[in-house]
Design goal:
The protein is an alpha+beta fold. It is built from 5 helices and 4 strands. Strand 2 and strand 3 form a beta hairpin.
Length: about 150
């Protein structure tokens, strides 16, 4: 699939919204030197073509009482792939999960209060999958935008 054609104004708008998704169209317009109606139309176009999928909140999991994050590689037992995927979807502490190629089928990120909480969640899939868990010590590269292509 070919990516959407972005120009420098689109990139500036995306970067500004990434820094602060609550900016008003007027504030965005001031940042890129355009009128608010023009910026509103550009943002709508970026939404329509699927470049902007939504506007979000960035939460601090530690401030919410989740002192531990874990990356869990999950390898379903034979015949359990779809059931394991369903189980993972139902775990509220699973904040992200990718279906991947290779020996494991899923890589999930969990936010939990402590090791005991983590053990309880892993027990939920233990009879249907093998897991390999790593505790996150730090996140030197937090989730960020991919490089934004200009003028494709």
């Amino acid at each position: 699939m070919k990516g959407a054609a972005l120009d420098t104004v689109d990139v500036a708008l995306i970067e500004a919204l990434t820094d602060n998704a609550r900016l008003s169209m007027r504030d965005l317009a001031g940042r890129v030197g355009m009128s608010a109606p023009s910026v509103t139309e550009r943002v709508r176009r970026l939404e329509d073509v699927g470049v902007l999928r939504g506007f979000t909140v960035d939460l601090d999991s530690k401030a919410l009482g989740y002192g531990l994050q874990a990356i869990v590689r999950i390898k379903p037992l034979p015949g359990q792939l779809h059931k394991v995927e369903e189980l993972i979807r139902k775990i509220p502490q699973c904040v992200e999960c990718d279906k991947v190629t290779g020996e494991d089928c899923f890589i999930a990120r969990l936010c939990v209060a402590d090791i005991d909480s983590l053990d309880g969640l892993l027990d939920a899939v233990a009879d249907r999958a093998e897991t390999n868990t790593a505790i996150v010590k730090a996140t030197p590269v937090p989730r960020r935008l991919p490089p934004l292509p200009v003028g494709r």
